[in-house]
Design goal:
This protein has 4 helices and no strands. This is CopG family transcriptional regulator.
Length: about 80
């Protein structure tokens, strides 16, 4: 039975992005996890990214650099309080 036409085929190239993972091991891990979850790799990635975005809440995305900066500041404050 053919799938119903939802108009998505016309826009598939506009909706596609490429994600280059750091290793083949990560690719295989993500594919394995998607298969275990019973979803396509695209659906798996979409769900994980959307979940992460929702958890960011009010503060929004914080870069790794900013997190490291905040951690160092907190560690310095703790060091001063202990002194």
């Amino acid at each position: 039975m053919p799938k119903p036409n939802r108009g998505k085929t016309k826009t598939i190239k506009e909706r596609a992005i490429y994600v280059y993972l750091p290793s083949l091991e990560m690719v295989e891990d993500w594919k394995r996890r998607a298969e275990k979850a019973g979803v396509s790799i695209s659906k798996f990635v979409i769900e994980r990214v959307e979940d992460s975005i929702r958890r960011e809440g009010e503060e929004g995305y914080i870069s790794r650099v900013e997190l490291i900066k905040r951690l160092k500041e907190a560690e310095e404050e703790i060091r001063k309080l202990k002194a």
